[in-house]
Give the backbone structure.
Amino acid sequence: MSSDAAGRILEMLRNQAGRLSGTEISRKLGISRSAIWKHIRSLRGAGYQITAKHATGYQLIAVPTHLTTWEIQAGLGTERLGIKIHTFSQVDSTNMVAFRLALNGAHEGEVVIAESQAAGKGRMGRHWESPHGVNIYLSIILRPLFPPNKMSMITLMTAIACAEAVEEVTGLLPSIKWPNDLLIGEKKMGGILTEADMEMDRINFVIVGIGINVNMPHSSFPPSIRDTATSLREAPDTEISRIALIQALLRKFELWYQRLGQGWGDAVKGRWEEISQIRGKEVEIVFMGETVKGQALEIDADGALLVQEPGGEVKRIVAGDVHVRG
Ligand code: BTN
């Protein structure tokens, strides 16, 4: 539920079939008629269509199609995650905005969302294609109490939360490619970039950045990734509600993050292995010019991938790009 007055007025309007009088709002919220009018104006400014009639009051006619904090928080139902959501039309990168907020003391569970990114960041210094108004670019600020060697587990649980949220909203369960690619079929439709501010033995904060291609048409992908990337809309060929997907994602994320905090690392590992189906597959991993080939065994307790080379030696892989062979 929204904690600000404009959000509470919006909620009252949503729950009202017809018109709602200023007197009623004023009585329920304990604010003046002129304060109500000020909030109605700011809601209109944010794209809400609200009619006002002197004698009968206010009525909500239409909500904006762009992402607003109020739309995301309506019926969200999380305990901490997304209690504060910062929404923007354009940013450099939501991860960078979240990082700056965290340096200035932002709390665990604050979320940054943008309609577009001018400098969207992918893993390993890559660029993340971030066109306006069609996808999800979202970063979550965390202040976990566990040690730095468990960082990878956050990325793994985020991938689970994303996959389950997509399934809840579209009926399609994406697969996960280690460590953080979300795939529909063979094509990538989402990715996770986890960044942290940490010392040797403690994590100050973590920024979990999530990019999901939702309604992006195939023609909008640059030619360089057109054969390897996709969006959710392409699979069932229907427009998908970004609001519903963000809400499902925040709920799933909170659930899995709580589990991780309660020491359920094994559950995260198990669910990740189930969705990724990587166990036993022949893989090739490239990292900083080095290639490791072998059979994927499992994820270890810290989220690293264990790969057995043909000679029998088991390598522990903590970063890189995985190609599943055959
Ligand atoms: C990857 O390379 O697969 C990771 C992509 C992560 C993209 C998201 S979009 C929201 C957040 N902000 C960024 O600049 N990057 C992440």
